[in-house]
Design a protein that fits this description.
- By secondary structure, the protein is of the alpha/beta class.
- It is built from 11 helices and 12 strands.
- Strands 1, 2, 3, 4, 6, 7, 8, 10, 11 and 12 form a 10-stranded mixed sheet that branches. The chain has a two-stranded antiparallel sheet with strand order 5-9.
- The protein starts with a helix and ends with a helix.
């Protein structure tokens, strides 16, 4: 019951929070899931707003239930998953909704632990086409924990104009490796592009096109923290022009190669109206069920009272009879 109540509450919050965005014609919506660290999400949102390629409403979501409720709305064009802590990255309770969005042709950008099987076991192999049984070591440069990014494949729209070597903040990156520590790709039905790699050929930027039409870009090495005294503070990575260009190009590429929004935007109003109607029907059904339960409770209480009155009458009559007999 508590779980159901939480979901209903989150749904109401989501509809209220996104009501304006969903009501502005056919404008797309970009979701940024930044669990309990909205400042990190705001940094990314500001980057997106600064780029004329994106004409979308941007909503930062902290609660998983809200994200779960909203991610499959027709007007959601892309989802950016950038939780900071490992607990926030587990996403086990929303993995199915994220996979459904992606398999329906949605665009997804993933950062940090959310790209690994250890913390998102139900999602990453399908959405990001990477997994992990070994971690990559960081370097320390100018008191910052960083990974060295070496360009491998080139997608002109993403990293065509970027340097062949980058340094971006992070402290943990998992990859699939053989006993010798070398990267071994997992099987995939889609097309995987390793744009940048690190030590042992570990993938650090992976662009993936699924057979269903969804596209994603994973940044497993972007494990950042919110404290400014840490060498992998998220503010440091945002300062790097290479990151800004790489992130924005990746988002633009994923959206361009994901047909979901274009396919559903024409029926968004009807779909939303149907969803609202469905939720209203569920609410009415729940209210009717509550009333039936209340009526049954009152009927049982009435029966108990009736039995009690009868018992009292019987006892009273027996007492009268016994009293008359005694006289």
């Amino acid at each position: 019951m508590k779980r159901a109540a939480a979901i209903v509450t989150a749904s109401v919050i989501a509809l209220l929070a996104l009501g304006v965005a969903l009501g502005q014609g056919q404008s797309p919506l970009i979701l940024i899931y930044s669990g309990f660290t909205p400042q990190w999400g705001e940094e990314l949102a500001d980057l997106i707003r600064s780029d004329d390629r994106f004409d979308a409403d941007i909503q930062i979501v902290e609660e998983r239930e809200v994200y779960e409720t909203v991610v499959n709305f027709p007007r959601v064009q892309a989802a950016i998953l950038c939780p900071i802590t490992r607990v926030q990255a587990s996403l086990e309770d929303i993995s199915n909704m994220t996979v459904a969005f992606f398999m329906d042709g949605g665009a997804i950008i993933g950062m940090g632990d959310v790209c690994t099987t250890r913390y998102a076991p139900g999602m990453d192999e399908t959405v990001f086409s990477i997994t992990g049984n070994r971690s990559l070591r960081t370097l320390t440069i100018d008191d910052r924990k960083v990974f060295e990014y070496l360009k491998k494949e080139v997608i002109d729209e993403i990293n065509g104009g970027l340097p062949s070597q980058l340094y971006l903040e992070g402290y943990l990156a998992f990859y699939s490796a053989n006993p010798g520590g070398k990267y071994v790709a997992i099987p995939t039905d889609g097309t995987r592009h390793i744009l940048y790699e690190g030590e042992n050929n570990a993938p650090l930027v992976v662009a993936y096109e699924s057979p269903s039409g969804g596209s994603s870009v994973a940044f497993p090495g972007l494990t950042v923290q919110e404290n400014q005294d840490r060498g992998n503070y998220y503010g440091y990575v945002v300062e790097r022009p290479e990151f800004r260009e790489l992130f924005l190009n990746s988002l633009a590429w994923a959206i361009e190669n994901s047909p979901r929004y274009q396919r559903l935007s024409g029926i968004a109003d009807e779909a939303l109206e149907e969803e609202v109607s469905r939720r209203a029907e569920l609410a009415e059904e729940a209210e009717n069920l509550r009333k039936r339960i209340e009526r049954r409770r009152l009927m049982r209480l009435a029966v108990v009272w009736a039995v009690g009155i009868v018992v009292c009458l019987v006892i009273g009559l027996k007492l009268v009879v016994v009293s008359d007999g005694a006289d």
